[in-house]
Amino acid sequence: MRERSESIIRNIDWFTVGIYLVLLTLGWLTTYSAVYQAGESDIFDLSRKESKQLMFDGISILLAGSILIIDASFFTATAFFFYGGILFLNLLVLFLGNTVKGSHSWFRFGGFGLQPAELMKFATGLALAKYLSDLNRPDLKKAFVTTMSFILIPMVIIAVLQNETGCALVFLAFIIVLFREGVFPVWLLVFGIASIASAILGLKYPTMFWIFVFVMIVLGVGVFLLSRKKTWRLALILFLGIGFFSGIMHYTPIALDSISPHQQYRIKIWLGLPVTEKVEKKYGYNTNQSMNAIGSGGLWGKGFLEGTVTKNKFVPEHETDFIYCTMGEEGGFVGTSLVVMLYLILIVRIIFMAERQRSDFSRIYGYAVASIFFIHLVVNIGMTIGLLLVIGIPLPFFSYGGSSLIGFTLLLFIFLRLDAQRLMVLR
Amino acid sequence: MNPLAGRKYIILGVVILTAILYISRLAYIQLGTDKYKMSADNQAFKYLTDYPPRGAIYDRNGKLLVFNQVAYDLMIVPREAKGCDTLALCKILNITKEDFLKRLIRLCGNLESAKKDYREYIFESQMLPELNARIQEKLYKLNGFYVQARTVRQYPKPIAAHLLGYIGEVDEKYIEKHPYYKQGDYVGMFGIERGYEDALRGKKGVSIKIRDANNNIQGSYKDGLYDTSSVPGQNLVCTLDAELQEYGELLMQNKIGGLVAMEPGTGEILALVTSPTYDPNMLVGRDFPKNYGKLQKDTLGRPLINRALKSFYPPGSTFKLLNALVAQQEGVLTPSTLYPCARGYPPLGGKPKCHAHASPTNLSGSIATSCNSYYSYVFKSIVENKKYKNSVEGFEAWRNYVLSFGVGKKIGTDLPFEAKGIVPTVSYYDKVFGKGGWRASTVISLGIGQAEVSVTPLQMCNIICCIANRGYYHIPHVIRKVGDKEDPKWREKQFTLVKDRQIYENVIEGMSNVVKAGTGRIAQLPGIEVCGKTGTAQNPHGEDHSVFVLFAPRENPKICIAILVENAGFGATWAAPIASLLSEKYLTGKILRTDLETKMIEGDLIHKHPSGGAKPKPAQH
User: Fold this and answer.
1) Which chain A positions have a beta carbon within 8 Å of B23's beta carbon?
2) Looking at residue A51, what DSSP letter applies?
3) Which end of chain B is more exposed for a tag (fewer CB within 10 A), N or C?
4) Chain A partners of B42 at a C-beta cutoff of 8 Å?
5) DSSP letter assigned to residue B143
6) CATH for B71-150?
């Protein structure tokens, strides 16, 4: 028994643990700077955000340690239990939770809050891993429908009932897992990406519509003539395809005009479509200030605690969703690219680890972890540098907040424990 | 092997490509463009300027000539003026709503850009304390407006307007060339204010404040590490004698012309009067544009021209002194040289003409009688000197002598805008008469200071200084000390090409006779030997200009005066008495000849003027 636990400790991927601790430290320093006000600082004052965050860091490290001593089979056995239980919490919060700025996703205990949606991510990962690894002779259609249900049910609850769209969108990352496992049809993936691309093209270049249709028809005819089997089925698919994407291109701008002006303007500004200066100022404010902060950092940044944009209330949510701006302003390009590189190393490492598992369960869960980190990185940083729409999700280990930090720690360390037992076949 | 295993490469590829894309984007916004940095700094920093007080100016006896009074500029940041109670503001400033909008358009170009313009402009300049008090009461309603304390120049005595100059707001073009200045700053535009701008202005200080998104000041940027404190402007000690200046202006009132009084031993300008003049307090503060326009429209007297420095006239007979010096130095004239006069210059049939006097005369007599014929002979003898190959070389030699007295070039005073005057060149005459087509007799009028030669009153005074000093001058200047530093340049002696002391004494003897027994008897002072010379400068536009130069006493001269009164006829009628009264005032401290004084003060020559003042001659090179 003692021998086994020693080998497990040896098998823990300490490299990843190291990256975790580096990110946690950088994250706390950034939070400290983001909420810093000259002349006031007391890290033992628990009403201050930097102190709370330090406490959350401590709790997370304790939690991480505890997870590492739980046997991997516990997670395979309780996967569905976690999924069901946390899903239940997400429903319960609708009745027992507080409403903050239109969102119904928080339990309140004294000065602290818990957002069960943050815990749903690892639970969904576990459930997907359990379900897919238990399939013997996979019926792909059935598996697709089931797994998509696992994903869509929490998404709908979080997006529609809790009114936390950003948090819900994260669950789309699990499509990467399904793609890896062959459950998500490739044609659907291509089709989905093509649809989104057509919609964006249609918005950005509405005048290009007829040229697009013309090119599509030429390509369609070309494909038909070049293919060996000139069947009616192929012709029909091509015909419908051209019609569908042209339709998306043509109707997206029309559809855009019918949604709420708030969303409409945000999308228009993101795509660089012409809007009045007033609108640009109001709806582009977050992105403009965020880019001012990051852009003004230069190569080395303005130095720790020296930011002028992230402090002084120019950047909204500067300690949570826009925490990356503080890094950008004070740490400069050195700081921002370091963060991106650390995440890249973390994600690539997790994928590498996932691929070395003997158990399907561990591999699938590993991809779930990598996918969640990846989408957070893409969406959060993408919005601060003006590449993506502003969608409020945290930057793991950086953004202020206990729930997300604990959620990400659970997510990562469950996988580290599974990896420590990678030579076992888990059932 | 699982056929799906290859998909990990697709996933890894997407992850790595995304990271590369993001890092490139970060490189662009953080390293590739200044756009965001400028925008961030613009919104976060507020630069507060600390304006130093402009230096004061004292006269040679420590009397204050210029000092500062607190005034207030009403500043506007157009972008922040939304919701401002313009009605209240218009009422206080006594302007209409249309005026208000017009001003805004003048500042920002148009109303549309005014809405975005975050720069600071002066909306109403140099308000006096009581107007400021009324603005302050309503300031809470005037969004986008604030008041900045500045200073305006005040002049205890309404004298020396042209000399002291004035300050004005810088314009865009000026800022482009001189980046020290910012929109709304003042700069010396004229006179000493302009010539000594760098010393007078001091150095602006700046403090950088951090402001938040609500435009509230949060404190100093980096605890004031980059803040600088202002350095007050330096005080100037002027060489003027305020009393003499005031008296000169009084005597010159209602006359057109200029006078310069200098201390020959130092080159210090004691008085520099141009007439008509104006009260320097007119070109101060809010009334500047109105009053400036008024002065500009006065085409009769043209009070904005500094005639003592900027206008040049034929020097007339006073120029004979110079020719007498040159001829002696060249060895073609001695004190006993006699030339005849037949109411004119005999060799050219009596031209230039002369008046009736004993003939022939020697050098001293020729100065005392101001004989035109004598100096035509003298000039001819200089130009056709046997020691030169031809008269062109002789002329060239004459010209070099003349230039060494500070004529025909900028002397290099510390006042901006001094004129060069004219001493014609060989090439000028070659152009007019053709090469070799002219001789001494062609340009004989130069001998008597007429025709093409022109000098400013300042240059005329400088010639007298050279004579009084017997051979050198100090560059004329109006500022003795900047702070407590003196410019060593003023101490240097500028020697003329006429070196021999005796030569000067011979001419001075004549000048003394002018006052003792000649054309300038009115300039006599009891107990002081005054040396002078009358002049009458021909004026093609109307009556001749009255000219007089003097220095006194003969030994150890204390004062040199040159004066020109336009269209006032013979030198002895107006110019000589005024110069004499000035020297009396300066040397004795009181005026005994009160009748003469009254006559000079009350004399009004402007309103009998034929064409509204002589136009300065166009410059030629």
Assistant:
1) 337, 340-341
2) H
3) N
4) none
5) T
6) 3.30.1390
Residue B23 CA to residue B376 CA, distance in Å, equals 90
A-chain CB neighbours of B210 within 8 Å are: 308, 312
> How far is Cα B260 from Cα B68, in angstroms, rounded to an integer?
28
| Same domain, residue pair A178 and A218 | no
A298 vs B37: CB contact, 8 Å cut-off?
Answer: yes
Is residue B564 within 8 Å of B545, Cβ to Cβ? yes
Show residues of chain B in contact with A345, CB under 8 Å.
Answer: none
Q: Do residues A239 and A289 share a domain?
A: no
A237: in domain: yes
pLDDT at A55: 92
CATH superfamily to which B41-63+156-238 belongs: Penicillin-binding protein 2a (Domain 2) (3.90.1310.10)
DSSP alpha helix (H) spans, B5-153: 7-27, 35-44, 86-93, 97-108, 111-114, 129-138
pLDDT < 50 regions, chain A? none
Q: Which residues pair with B258 in a beta bridge?
A: B274, B564
Q: How many CB pairs under 8 A join A and B?
A: 117
Q: Which residues pair with A103 in a beta bridge?
A: A100
| Contact at CB, B19 and A344, closer than 8 angstroms | yes
Q: Is residue A273 part of a domain?
A: no
pLDDT confidence bin for B614, thresholds 50/70/90:
very low
- How many degrees, rounded to 5, is the angle at CA B282 between CA B279 and CA B287? 170
Kindly determine whether residue B212 and residue A306, on different chains, have CB atoms separated by under 8 Å.
no
Beta bridge mates, B563 = B259, B548
Q: Quick one: average pLDDT of B334-348?
A: 88
Helix (H) or strand (E) holding B168, with range, is strand B167-169
Residue A253: asked if its preceding bond is cis (omega within 30°), the reply is no
Q: Check if A138 contacts B (Cβ < 8 Å).
A: no
Q: State which residues form the domain around A199.
A: 193-258
Specify whether A227 is located in the same domain as A367. Answer: no
* Burial class of residue A47 (count of CB atoms within 10 Å of its CB; 0-12, 13-18, 19+): exposed
* A180/B11 CB distance under 8 A: yes
d(CA B117, CA B108): 7
Query: Any idea what the Cα angle at residue B555 is, between residues B551 and B556, rounded to 5°?
Result: 80
- Sheet containing strand B45-50, edge to edge, reads B45-50, B205-211, B217-220
**What pLDDT sits at residue A43?**
64
Interface test with B, best of A132, A277, A312, A374 (most B CBs within 10 A): A312
Higher pLDDT, B139 or A41: B139
Q: Which chain A residues touch B211 with a CB distance below 8 Å?
A: 312
Task: Give ∠ CA B240-B241-B247 in degrees, rounded to 5.
Answer: 115
Architecture of the domain whose range is B242-283+306-608: 3-Layer(aba) Sandwich (3.40)
CATH 3.40.710.10 residue ranges in chain B? 242-283+306-608
Domain count for chain A:
2
Q: How many CB atoms lie within 10 A of CB B317?
A: 25
Query: Which regions of chain B carry the CATH code 3.90.1310.10?
Result: 41-63+156-238
If asked whether residues A211 and A151 sit together in one domain, one would say no
A112 plus A213 within the same structural domain: no
* pLDDT band per the 50, 70, 90 thresholds, residue B82: confident
Is the separation of the CB atoms in B563 and B259 below 8 Å?
yes
- Decide if pLDDT at B609 tops 60: no
Q: What is the pLDDT of residues B429-445, one digit of tens each?
A: 888 888 888 888 888 88
DSSP conformation class of B217 = E
CA distance B176 to B157: 36
Which chain B residues are closer than 8 Å to A293 by Cβ? 40
Q: Which of residues 274-333 of A touch B (CB under 8 A)?
A: 277, 288, 291-299, 306, 308-309, 311-314, 328-329, 332-333
Q: What is the pLDDT of residue B617?
A: 40
